[in-house]
Every structure is written in C-alpha cells, then in structure tokens.
Amino acid sequence: MKTLWILGDQLTHHHPILTQYDDSSTILIIESQNRWKKMPYQRKRLVLLISAMRHYANKLKERGFKVDYIKAHTFSAGWQAHLKNQKPAEIVTMAAASYPGRQFQQKLSETVNIPVTLLKNTQFLTGIYNPIPNPQANKRYVMETFYRQMRKRFDLLMENGQPMGGQWNFDKDNRKKLPKHDAPPAPPVFKPDAITQEVMAEVAQLKHAIGTVEGFDYAVTHCDAKRAFEIFLNERLTKFGDYEDALTPRSHLLYHSALSPYLNLGLLEPLPLVQAAQQALLDGNAPINAVEGFVRQIIGWREFMYWQYWRQMPGMENKNAWGAKRPLPQFFNTGQTNMACLHHAINRAIDTGYNHHIERLMLLCNYFMLAGIKPKVANDWFLSLYIDAYDWVMPPNVIGMGLNADGGLTATKPYIASANYINKMGDFCKSCFYNPKKRTGEDACPYNFLYWNFILEHEAKLRANPRTSRNVLGLRYLDEAEKERVQAQAKQFLNNLE
Ligand code: FAD
After folding, report:
1. Angle at 408 between CA 405 and CA 411, to 5 degrees
2. 319 alpha carbon to ligand 1 midpoint, in Å?
3. What is the per-residue burial (b if ≥16 Cβ within 10 Å, else e) of 63-101?
4. Do the beta carbons of residue 48 and residue 391 sit within 8 Å?
5. Please, how many CA atoms are within 13 Å of residue 385, restricted to the half-sphere of its CB?
C-alpha cells in the first residue's frame, strides 16, 4: 500500500505524484481545520482554498484515482486517521513550496516510521532550471540578471539569441496614469456552485476570520482558472503594460491579471501562461511592452521571489534591517482613515483579499516603512488578508521588497515615496482630505512629513546607497525650520498612531 500525499496548495493538473500511481496507491488530501485558524484569515481566501481542494479531490476521483480526503482538526490527526485505515508501507509527496511545510514533510518519516520519498516541486520554473544554484550568503543578486537567464533558458521573447523588440525591459513605457475616460473591463465572475456554497456557509461561521464570504466569485477549478486567463488574454493584456503602475479608485483590477491566486494554488502553471502571452505578441494581438511586462512578472519576479525565499530561509520573516519597532496601526484592521488611497486599499483588501502590486508596494508597504512598523507585523497583516498569500511569497515581498528589512538582499533600495509619487500615478489624491502638495500643516498628506522625517532619520544610510542618494539630495530644499516642523509633526503623528 502506497500513500501519495498532495498538499492543499499543490492542486496541479499534471501533478508529478500521479505518475507514481498504481493499483496499490491511495491519494491523500488533508483538510486541516486548525490550519484555517492559525491567524484570522480573510474569508474569501479560505473559501477559495477549501473549495478548490474539494473540487480537485472530486476531479481526481472522476479521473479514476482512489482518494482519501480527510477533514481533521490538525494535519497530525488527519495522518493518524489515514494510517489507521490504510496502513501504507510507503509515502510519496511533492516538496512543499514553503519552509514550515517542507520541515513537516522531512520529519514525517520519523513521526510515522514509514519511508517518505520527496519529489521535486514542479510549481516553479526554478525547479527545472535554477539560474543561481549556489548563491553566496550575503551577496546581492539582482532580479534583472536572473530574469534574463530565465528568458534565454525557456526561449521566451528571444530572437536569434537577442531580446525581441531590441531590449530586455520596457518598464519606462509602463508607468502611465489611467486616462480620465478609460474604463477597464469588469473582472470575470465565476458563480459559486453547490460545493462552493457549502464551503461559504462553513467559512461564514468561523469566528476569527476577516471580511465576508458574500460576493465570492473566484474560479475554483482548472477549467475556470484557464477561462480567467483567457479572459485576461483577450480583454486586458494589451493594456497590461501601459497601466501596470497606475493608481485609481475607479477600477479594482485595472488591466492586471488577478492570476496569482490560481498560480499559487496550482490551478494554473507558469510556463503555459507566458507562452500564450508570447503567442499573442507573435499574432499581433498584444504589444511588446504588455507582453514583456507580463512575462517579467511571472518568470522574473515570481520566480526570483521564490528563489530569494529559499535562499534566505529560515529566519527571513524576522529580519529587521531598519530597526522598525511600531505595532500595527489600528486603522489597518478597519480601513477607517482620512487618507483616500489607504482607505480604498485597506477596504479592498478586507473585502476582496486583493490589491494590485503598486497598491501593495507603494501605498501599503511604503506607509509601513515610513511609519516604522515592525516588518513581521506587516508580513502577518498581508499573510492573513490576501487571497494569494502563502508562506513562501510573503517574506520576499514584504520583508525583502516592500520593507528592505533583509538588508537589501532582495531589492537594491527601499521603495519609499512621498505623496508626489501617489499623485503622479493616479487620482486618489483628488478626493482626499489631505493635500498631496503640503509637507506640513493640518491637511498635509502624512506620506509627505513621514517621508521627509524618514530621510532625516536615515540620512547617512540612504546617502551611502547610490540608488537612494538622490532622495537625500531633496533635503537641500528644506531649511532648518522646515526640518524641525517635519520632525515635530511626524513625531506627534506617530505617537498618536500607537
Ligand atoms: P499581475 O500584475 O497580473 O502579475 C502577473 C503575475 O505575476 C501575478 O499573478 C503573480 O503570480 C506574478 N508576480 C508578479 N510579481 C510578483 C511578486 N513580486 N511575487 C510573486 N509573484 C509575482 N504575490 C502573491 O502571489 N501573493 C502574495 O501574497 C503577495 N503579496 C505581496 C505583498 C507585497 C507587499 C508586495 C509588494 C507584493 C506582493 N505580491 C504577492 C506580488 C504581487 O503584488 C502580486 O503577485 C500581484 O499583485 C497579484 O496580482 P495579479 O495576479 O493581478 O498580478
């Protein structure tokens, strides 16, 4: 008897474990209720995960596999029930994407006294090709170099060994504000079926969860996730690049793909997506800046983050290179703030579990960074709320990219900005109580005095980094009296936050 254990975020159609299946095998999937209670998770995220697992198990059964789907309080209890009923002589499982999961797998053999075979994780392209297999401990590696190697290895957007369109990077074309009359298409809606409705009713009852199950409309099967991708290809990809960095209350999604929940669960796999996007370019259906931008996100940033996570674990989630000490401001739990951009972003996160990248980076993380919020606290806030959050993806994005708390191993500079950036990239400031142009005073945007306060506090460190020394140069426009006003207002504001 052989047990093939599939984890809840490994719902891939071509799961490598299926090649090991024979008449003596049972596929094991455990739904651990304690897992859902580890922290107060956003309810739609739980619905997505649980419903996708149940649909996946049913699909495997339809495909002729024997499946033991166990609902238990803990993974250990689930294992005990399975061992008692099935008495396996060997266990096979695919390596977990996250560190705690992999630790559990590595200790499983000792715990249950049965040999365990760990298969390579196939949910990331770095499982096939790792551009930097033996990184040096404290050396910086930049995403761009990593990404170019991935492009070459997987032959994506390459022409006779050179990048298509004559350049590797079209980021400069991808920083437009959403024009006044541009209305991005509505996101796709997948009506909950009977299984999903049952899960919604269960999750609605959970006491320590956030948001509501009402309005759940994510895809929960391979077929619907593929449909979501096709809709993105047909309706959004052409403008994906142009408005990638735009900020607006007018559209939830802009031209982003919203595919991360499906990729991270295994409902979609990275290579077919980028190959289809490349085909759209070759067929003349999408411009190079859009396609290159999308390919960069998937085979560049996503893979690089996974690589950084494994390079810096264990301990990455506790890094704090800027010595930030403050707890989470209360309004991050409610969205109640006069700052229009944060009000929108936090409420969206509570309601849907989704913000696009620039909202996560330049609104939320920027605020956490400037206000000196403890990185682990920020990490956990994102981890509990986001529809696409998993242990492997949070530390590199929050600790590494967003807060530069890993000493710059993930990103070469802290992503900090004043209200000037937010105003330039969007139209949140138009409806805001605060004035994006004022540095101090009652209606000055907090991003402004917090930004200058941060520059003053960390002047030497920022000056020493060639990528942030320009930020420090701006101090020459502040006389001594203005510096004092900035610091006094920031101090008062931060004291009130606590
Ligand atoms: P698109 O803009 O359409 O991009 C396409 C795909 O590229 C995404 O679906 C995603 O799979 C991938 N991608 C792009 N950048 C990254 C990245 N930095 N890390 C991982 N994948 C990336 N991504 C998550 O998958 N889960 C998270 O919990 C998460 N939290 C984040 C928190 C912070 C503070 C920051 C700065 C980034 C975070 N990201 C996370 C990365 C990125 O913001 C999301 O992947 C993206 O916003 C998801 O929306 P989308 O599918 O519409 O992305």
Report:
1. 105
2. 21
3. eebebbbbebeebbbbbeebbeeeebebbbbbbbbbbeb
4. no
5. 24
Sequence length of the chain is: 498
Asked if residue 168 has its Cβ within 6 Å of ligand 1, the reply is no
Closest CA to 157 of 57, 30, 298: 298
- The answer to whether the CB of 301 is under 6 A from ligand 1 is yes
**Predicted local distance difference test score (pLDDT) of residue 252:** 87
On whether the CB atoms of residues 291 and 299 are closer than 8 A, the answer is no
pLDDT for position 95:
97
- Counting as low any pLDDT under 50, the low residues of the chain are none
Cα–Cα distance between 209 and 74 in angstroms, integer? Answer: 18
Give, using CA atoms, the residue closest to atom 28 of ligand 1: 389
Rounded to whole angstroms, how far apart are CA atoms 455 and 42? 34
Structure token digits, residue 125? 């392209």
Task: Give Cα 387 to chain centroid, integer Å.
Answer: 9
Task: Return the residue whose CA atom lies nearest to atom 32 of ligand 1.
Answer: 397
Helix, strand and coil content of the chain, in percent to the nearest 5, comes to: 50, 10, 40
Q: Spell out the residues 6+ positions from residue 70 whose beta carbon is closer than 8 angstroms to its own.
A: 28, 29, 30, 31, 78, 81, 82
**What is the DSSP pairing of strand 158-159 with strand 116-119?**
unpaired
Residue 292 has what DSSP assignment?
Answer: H
Ligand 1 contact via 365 beta carbon (within 6 Å): yes
Residue nearest to atom 4 of ligand 1 (CA): 297
Distant-in-sequence, close-in-space partners of 422: CB < 8 Å, separation ≥ 6: 247, 341, 362, 363, 428, 429, 436, 447
* pLDDT given at position 478: 96
Predicted local confidence at residue 28, as pLDDT: 98
